[in-house]
Automatic annotation (TrEMBL), chain A:
Residues 591-856 form the Heme-copper oxidase subunit III family profile domain. It comes from Haloarcula vallismortis ATCC 29715. GO terms for biological process: aerobic respiration; electron transport coupled proton transport; respiratory electron transport chain. Residues 12-533 form the Cytochrome oxidase subunit I profile domain. It is a multi-pass membrane protein. The lineage of its organism: Archaea, Methanobacteriati, Methanobacteriota, Stenosarchaea group, Halobacteria. One of its GO terms (molecular function) is cytochrome-c oxidase activity. Keywords: Electron transport, Heme, Iron, Membrane, Metal-binding, Respiratory chain, Transmembrane, Transmembrane helix, Transport. One of its GO terms (cellular component) is membrane. The chain crosses the membrane at residues 27-49, 69-93, 113-134, 154-178, 199-223, 254-275, 295-314, 326-349, 361-386, 398-419, 431-454, 469-490, 602-621, 627-646, 675-699, 719-739, 746-763, 795-816, 837-855. This is Cytochrome c oxidase subunit I.
Automatic annotation (TrEMBL), chain B:
It comes from Haloarcula vallismortis ATCC 29715. Keywords: Cell membrane, Membrane, Transmembrane, Transmembrane helix. Signal peptide: none annotated. InterPro entries: Cyt_c_oxidase_su4_prok. It comes from the Archaea. This is Cytochrome c oxidase subunit IV. It is found in: Cell membrane. The chain crosses the membrane at residues 7-26, 32-55, 67-87. GO terms for cellular component: plasma membrane. It is a multi-pass membrane protein. It holds the Pfam family COX4_pro. Coiled coil: none annotated.
Length: 856, 88
């Protein structure tokens, strides 16, 4: 194929293709392969500590080695393997299933992938910084703050930063998928009609959008305690004693709340895509539509909502009060009900259809069986009194492996199921079935004994002698499970050459749209514009589309091209903020352009590389080492420069001429992307403000002000800053009005005013902070700085995060001012409007920070 | 909306911000803390809704966008409220 046909991309046989690609199918394949790599990484660690557990005692890895292996195994599997693996499928299949030619923002999609890969590399590098993270995948604080980490703890900091980078990737991905699914569905395809896998991804992404924002807040706070020296999770303020005194009584529960508010939705984030795969395979291999499909979907929606109100069942053994425990026991029982419905729906589908026992079906069925066992044992844990016994034991370990690895089981089924689609070759069915047998045997031999040996304390390498036999069985099972993957890798690898060629649809009863096109599909996915207007899938040619759009001008009104790109500043946790800048910068670009521009971009790779180097540097800056400081600087510059490069690179991903867009038909994709991002930002700030409220309630709400805050901390600077921000918001609106009226002078003047007021805000804040740092009073002889007490920590970090948002906004504003000066935006104020959405949001946040941190 | 409408909103926001500070300067925060707390937070909420509805044009967008924003807000409030309640 010529380069032009490939949208400016080199052929797949060339290495550079994989660095430049922004195509969803390429990126899907990259995700799948990378995730499998992390599966092996995490799996080898698991085999190591299973060997350790053959006998009680740490004679193989040593105690610290054991802790590291267990902790990083958990983190790798939960974050770097299972969800990215599912999102490999999602990337590949969602556009195909909904009739789109790619995701809404292809370059952001590439950026997500590279951020993910480099976050994993950072995790890998942490092993070489003395010791890596060793405090359990749940990262409980204060345990995981530097004060309680043996040695320098730089590896642990790197892992926290790696997770921040990972979360940035997830947030970008969530915004991208949601925008895609609400703006790019084929004509006639209602939300409830999209294939069940895509639906499960839709709900997963919704949960991700909000849950990962809470995790991001938790991680930023933890990173700040690591790097900046705030004391959110510190019990004692002088740093010399570990007394659990009254200085910060909320310290230990704060992490638990933030983490589990994310953590419980996360378990469904892990499981939903698997559920989608199971439903697809059950339908295809029983030849039957899912029984009670409507109820299945309603159940999924319910679970997605309910998943946000069960998190305290992970905290039954903490000091939270009994009424709230009881409430959360009830909500936990509540969430298992819709699950029962889904399980029955799958069973009935099987009972009513004619089953074909192919490898993907076997894996799906196996997943269902394992999930039922895991789910039932979870209900035990959800009962407060039983959990008093089970918490912190291998019962929990067995439970969550049964459910989580059941999810993974379904995903391996998905790998077999879509392998012919992705490669155009059929795998070896016999070998596949053998793998399933070995896998299922290994799995149960590994995890079932854990229920029997449940009295083993988790995360510890000693256990009662009488339980040794069960642990030895589990170790053997672990190796059998591991070996089954060798079969899978062999099968899938060899079939690339030896496999039979397949046509579009190797499965008799597969009906979703990906099976209607060649295997693998062409770069643009479909031979025409997909439409379900007549009730079945058709491909419209350009003429029909033109005719149709003429008749309904509204439908085509949004058919212009837009670019996607990004920029960000360095420092702090700004990679995470890439999302906003990216979305906002995109709008800063002129709208319009040709259709067949290049879809190759090297910038996503470079941005992520820069972010990786910057974060590696950040992990060590607290040592003051020149090496770490300099790579932090180099990395930040690389990242910032690449973001600018990405913004300036022409890149066109036009909106579809005709598409189904309920309920966002009037919200064009840039605007929808921005709003979706802002929704996650609301949760981020909400979690920061929530943390502040929580530690303040723990301390005593009214005593806080009197005890911890110096009299020099007055209202006036906050009030002035409120005026400055309000006025700047007003000016952005005026810039919009001026652009609409095609007054270049007015636009430029208003934007310059916005910029000046924002700078004034920062200067005022700088003066204020500098003053507070250097006060010397009776209560605060050494100033009031980040480490002084919990009140100062919350004040500087929360308003600092807000300040970082202002800085990002100013960079975008400066960029737009220059463009306006050169004549942009006249008669088309959309770019300014989208920037305004962000800027007004920053304003709104301040409207709450001002009273909370300055008056009350 | 034209610039006059936007200006009216701006003036209201400005006045409300001043009112919040006046509540403090008048000593209400010291004498009747929770009344002052309620008053000040209500003013903040009104301001935020004003900015969102008019400057961010939520009033004129499809309701779904408002629900999206409310979804994030409710999630954050649920976290804050339930967490704070759990230690009361
Ligand atoms: C059927 C509904 C379920 C119920 C009622 C349930 C209940 C629970 C409870 C109460 C705990 C806390 C146990 C403790 O630490 O003492 C727990 C732990 C856990 N569950 Fe579930 N669960 C269910 C389904 C799932 C699913 C579907 C997944 C994932 C796919 C999952 C993954 C986990 C994980 C990872 C943990 C352990 C967290 C840790 O490291 O402490 N659960 N479950
Ligand atoms: Cu849970």
């Amino acid at each position: 194929m010529s380069q032009e046909h490939e949208h400016g991309l080199p052929p797949k046989s060339s290495v550079s293709r994989w660095f430049l690609t922004t195509n969803h199918k390429d990126i899907g394949v990259l995700y799948l392969i990378t995730a499998l790599f992390f599966l092996v990484f995490g799996g080898v660690l698991a085999l190591l500590f299973r060997l350790e557990l053959i006998s009680p005692g740490a004679d193989l890895l040593g105690s610290m080695g054991y802790n590291q292996a267990v902790s990083t195994h958990g983190l790798l599997m939960v974050f770097w393997f299972i969800s990215p693996f599912a999102f490999g499928f999602a990337n590949y299949l969602v556009p195909l299933q909904i009739g789109a030619d790619d995701l809404a923002f292809p370059r952001l999609n590439a950026l997500s992938y590279w951020l993910y890969l480099f976050s994993g590399i950072l995790m890998g590098v942490s092993f070489f910084q003395g010791t890596t993270f060793a405090g359990g995948w749940t990262m409980y604080a204060p345990l995981n703050t530097p004060a309680y980490i043996p040695g320098e703890g730089l590896g642990a900091t790197s892992v926290v930063l790696a997770l921040i980078m990972f979360t940035a990737a997830v947030t970008l991905g969530s915004v991208n998928f949601l925008t895609t699914m609400y703006r790019m569905r084929a004509e006639g395809l209602r939300m409830r009609d999209i294939p069940i896998f895509s639906l499960s991804i839709n709900l997963t992404v919704w949960m991700m959008l909000f849950a990962f924002a809470a995790l991001l807040a938790a991680l930023m706070i933890l990173a700040s305690d690591h790097i900046l020296g705030t004391t959110y999770f510190q019990y004692s303020i002088d740093g010399t004693t570990m007394a659990t005194d009254a200085d910060n009584p909320g310290a230990s529960l704060l992490w638990a709340h933030l983490f589990w508010f994310f953590g419980h939705p996360e378990v469904y984030i892990v499981f939903f895509p698997a559920l989608g795969v199971m439903a697809e395979c059950f339908q295809t291999f029983t030849g039957r539509r899912l029984v009670g499909r409507k109820w299945f979907i309603i159940s999924m929606v319910l679970v997605a909502l309910q998943s946000f109100v069960v998190w305290m069942h992970h905290m039954f053994l903490t000091g939270i009060n009994l009424p709230i425990k009881t409430i959360f026991m009830a909500t936990t029982i509540g969430i298992s009900l819709p699950f029962d419905l889904m399980v029955f729906s799958l069973i009935y589908t099987m009972a009513k259809g004619r089953v074909r026992f192919t490898t993907p079906f076997l894996f799906s069925l196996g997943a269902l069986i394992l999930f039922i066992i895991g789910g039932i044992t979870g209900v035990f844990l959800g009962a407060i009194v039983l959990d008093y016994q089970f918490r912190g034991t291998y019962w929990v370990v067995a439970h969550f492996h049964y459910v989580m690895v059941a999810g993974a089981t379904a995903l391996f089924g998905g790998l077999y199921y879509w392998y012919p689609k992705i490669t155009g070759k059929m795998y070896n069915e016999t070998l596949g079935k053998i793998q399933f047998g070995v896998y299922f045997l290994g799995f149960n031999l590994l995890y079932f004994p854990m229920f029997i040996a449940w009295e083993t304390p988790r995360r510890v390498f000693v256990y009662p002698d009488g339980l040794q036999i069960w642990h030895s069985m589990a170790t053997v099972g672990g190796f059998i499970l591991g070996a089954s993957f060798l079969l899978m890798f062999y099968n899938l690898f060899v079939s690339l050459w030896r496999g039979e060629d397949v046509g579009p649809n190797p499965w008799e009863y597969a009906t979703s749209a990906e099976w209607a096109v060649s295997s693998p599909p062409s770069l643009e996915n479909f031979p025409g514009v997909p439409s379900y207007a007549t009730g079945k899938l058709e491909f419209l040619d350009d003429e029909t589309v033109a005719e149709r759009t003429e008749r309904t001008p509204g439908a085509a009104a949004h058919g212009h091209a837009a670019t996607d790109g990004g920029t960000a500043t360095d420092g702090g946790a700004v990679t995470a903020r890439t999302a906003v800048t990216a979305t906002a910068m995109e709008t800063a670009h002129e709208v319009g352009g040709e259709d067949h521009a290049s879809h190759a971009s090297f910038w996503p790779f470079l941005v992520s590389l820069g972010g990786f180097i910057a974060f590696l540097g950040l992990s060590g800056v607290r040592t003051g080492s020149v090496f770490y400081l300099s790579i932090a600087a180099v990395g930040s510059l690389t990242m910032f420069g690449s973001l600018v490069g990405m913004t300036r690179e022409p890149f066109h991903a036009p909106e579809m001429a005709i598409a189904e867009r309920w309920p966002f038909s009037e919200v064009e994709k840039m605007k929808l992307g921005m709003w979706t991002f802002l929704a996650s930002d609301i949760v981020l700030f909400g979690a920061f403000i929530g943390s502040y409220a929580f530690v303040r309630v723990a301390y005593g709400w009214t005593a806080w002000h009197h005890d911890l805050i110096p009299a020099e901390h007055v209202t006036m600077p906050g009030l002035i800053n409120t005026y400055l921000l309000l006025t700047s918001s007003f000016l952005v609106v005026l810039a919009m009005v001026a652009a609409e009226r095609e007054s270049k002078r007015g636009t430029v003047a208003a934007l310059v005013g916005t910029f000046a007021l924002g700078v004034g805000f920062l200067i005022n804040k700088g003066i204020e902070w500098n003053h507070l740092f250097h006060i010397s009073t009776e209560t605060f002889p050494n100033g009031w700085n980040l480490s002084t007490n919990i009140a100062s920590s919350t004040f500087y970090l929360t308003t600092g995060l807000h300040g970082a948002h202002v800085i990002i906004g100013l960079i975008i504003c400066a960029y737009m001012t220059v463009r306006a000066w050169n004549g942009a935006y006249q008669g088309d104020d959309r770019a300014i409007e989208y920037f305004g959405l962000y800027w007004h949001f920053v304003d709104i946040v301040w409207l709450f920070l001002f009273p909370l941190f300055y008056i009350l | 909306m034209d610039w006059k409408g936007y200006t009216v909103i701006y003036v209201v926001l400005f006045v409300f911000a001043t009112a919040q500070a006046v509540v403090e300067f008048a000593g209400l925060v010291d004498s009747a803390y929770w009344a002052a707390f309620g008053l000040i937070m209500v003013l903040s909420v009104i301001k935020a809704v004003g900015v969102a509805a008019y400057y961010q044009h939520l009033r004129w967008e499809p309701r779904a966008v408002t629900y999206l924003v409310l979804g994030g807000t409710v999630a954050a409030l649920a976290l804050t409220g339930a967490a704070a309640y759990s230690i009361l």
